[in-house]
Design goal:
two-stranded antiparallel sheet; alpha/beta; about 170 residues; seven-stranded mixed beta sheet; single chain
Amino acid sequence: MRVIGIAGWSGAGKTTLLTKLIPRLVERGIRLSTIKHAHHGFDVNQKGKDSHTPRMSGATEVLVSSANRWALVHELRGGAEPALDALLQKLAPVDLVIVEGFKRATYPKVEVYREAVGKPLLHPGDPGIVAIVSDRPISARVPVLSFEDIDGIIDTMLRRAVPVETAVEEIGSR
């Protein structure tokens, strides 16, 4: 199992790019999972549903299962947010894990950059940035790819992804 990240400022197009990458990776026969970091509260089940009620009543974990999927919701209840290395270890084995966000963690990442967002590049100060996907030409120490070059982005990601064990060691050592 290998890991690579997609990092960038809010509004740069990380999720949009990810939705273009996933089908092409699947077409190549790559089994993948994603981890998404949210900077805000989120909910995966709806108020009034059977899965929501136990969690709102105080359950720490609620696992919902059907013939099509299962989902585990873990409520932190004031506890610390798990680190990326801990989250990576919870995933079932796949060929590739793409992490969206966790831009300050130390692991290989492709930076997504749009000038219109008005934020600086991450790459000069982050040695984990292995490539940049940009809407304009940029002078950088790493390859710069266009948003339209999906195959080039995929090839770069697959070449630069590292074994999860390596990423966990690097992230955990910080």
